[in-house]
Amino acid sequence: QPPPPTRGHWPGERGDTAREECVRYISRASGSPRHEPGAMAAQLDLSQAALRGLSDKLYEKRKTAALEVENVARAILRAGDRAKLDALVSTLANDFVAMPMPNHRKGGLIGLAAVTVALAGTADSKLDDIVPPVLKCFADADQRVRYYACEALYNIAKAARVAFVRHFPDAFDALCKLSADNDPNVQNAAHLLDRLVKDIVTESVEAFDVAKFASMLRERIGVLNPYVRQFLVGWITALDSVPEIDMLTHLPDILDGLLNMLSDPNREIRQQADG
């Protein structure tokens, strides 16, 4: 697994094994038609090539299309056109991430991350529209979509930093489930994302709700899955190392679970729980 990226885009592969899919726009559940590609491109200031590229089977073509999305989002931000920004995010979420074709979902994910990178310090106002569709893909049936969902959320969290803490509960729940994923590449991607989220939380203590986190731990501390146990103990250890956070106050909520981990057959889990 390559190291974390130094700017907006996660290290990717050259292509995916899924068959090539054309850009299709189907009717919404309500029956109203989706925009035709040409009209959509004109409305969002995106080229039709970018819209096609977002759903391409090759990672490099999706990445190139995402760079155009990022540039367009920057231009929209400079112009102060909130309506066009809303339309861009809505299109990526509804016409790509919510589509049944895996390559569309992958393109929508990298597109939403590109928008967040473009917004950077002003991303807070759009995170409510960007983060939920990405997190939904953490439970996707396609392991490559789950992998790229981790990639997208990594770049979103990295760009948003402290603003991302508001979405920590949902991200923590999704990461907890993904820690036991049956695909090793997805697990590795989740570990990279988990380390970044830990860094963000520990540097943004004033925005972090420790009591709510303790409640989430209490709900999960009794699980038996070794990967989930390692995930939970890792978070307890990380937060216990922060002077501004008093985890001892919440020890009664998680003590029984930690004591049970002392008899775990996995030596590493026993050592972590004992620490």
Brief characterization of the structure:
Helix content is 63%, strand content 0%. With 275 residues, it is mostly helical.
Describe the secondary structure blueprint for this structure.
Layout: H1 37-44, H2 48-54, H3 59-79, H4 82-97, H5 102-119, H6 127-136, H7 143-160, H8 168-178, H9 184-202, H10 210-220, H11 226-240, H12 251-261, H13 267-274
Structural class of the helices, strands and pairings?
A: mainly alpha
Count of separate DSSP helical elements = 13
Quaternary structure state of the chains depicted: single chain
Beta-strand percentage range: under 5%
The profile of the biggest β sheet is: none
Low-confidence stretches: 1-9, 11-35
Which whole number gives the mean pLDDT?
85
> In sequence order, what are the helices and strands, one letter per element?
HHHHHHHHHHHHH
Distance between the termini: 29 Å
General form: elongated
Number of strands: 0
Radius of gyration: 20 Å
The helical percent reads: 55-70%
Architecture overview:
By secondary structure, the chain is mostly helical. Helix content is 63%, strand content 0%. It contains 13 helices and no strands. It is elongated and about 60 Å long. The protein starts with 36 loop residues before the first helix and ends with a helix. The model is unreliable at 1-9 and 11-35 (pLDDT under 50).
